[in-house]
Amino acid sequence: MNARRDDSGVDHCAFSNRQNMTTSVNLNEAKLNITTHVLDISRGLPAGGLAVCLYKFENDKWILLKESTTGSNGRCADLLQDERENSVPGRFKIEFRVNDYFRRNATNSMYPLIDVVFDVQNPREHYHIPLLLSPFGFTTYRGT
């Protein structure tokens, strides 16, 4: 990958494939991408069918951006509602509605909801927020 800045101050990256064809990407137009992957470590399986909501904190309140559900692989590939949320850094929250998921699997859990709050400092980066889940505990981290 080669990076360069043009006369207007815009950063570009050039990616070369095996046929030596080059694709140019304007780094200033790169989009924020927020994803999650939920694994039920008590069952050793992806947590498919789990309701997930993405919020952004603005004007002292949480604004719902997107409601989604994990696929059979436990993933939500893109939680952003549209490109307007991409333009500025900010505080986000993913709400995992685990109560219904555990009920469907005939399991009691002490956590009906799990909120993961995180700060987006560079809206051109990918923010992957995995959740490792069990009925009595959970952990999360910034993934890749």
Description:
- This protein is mainly β and 144 residues long.
- Helix content is 5%, strand content 50%.
- The protein is built from one helix and twelve strands, in the order βββββββββαβββ.
- The strands form three sheets. Strands 4, 5, 8, 11 and 12 form a five-stranded mixed sheet that branches.
- A hairpin with a 4-residue loop joins strand 4 (33-40) and strand 5.
- The longest helix has 7 residues, at 98-104.
- The radius of gyration is 18 Å and the shape is globular.
- The model is unreliable at 10-27 (pLDDT under 50).
Mean pLDDT: 82
Q: How large, in whole angstroms, is the Cα Rg?
A: 18 Å
Binned, the helix content reads under 10%
**Major beta-sheet overview:** 5 strands, mixed
What pattern of helices and strands is seen along the backbone? EEEEEEEEEHEEE
Content-based structural category = mainly beta
Quaternary state, please?
Answer: single chain
Low-confidence stretches: 10-27
> How far apart lie the N and C ends?
19 Å
Short account of what is shown:
This protein is mostly beta strands and 144 residues long. It has one helix at 98-104, and strands at 2-5, 11-16, 22-26, 33-40, 45-46, 51-58, 61-69, 75-76, 90-97, 114-120, 126-134, 137-140.
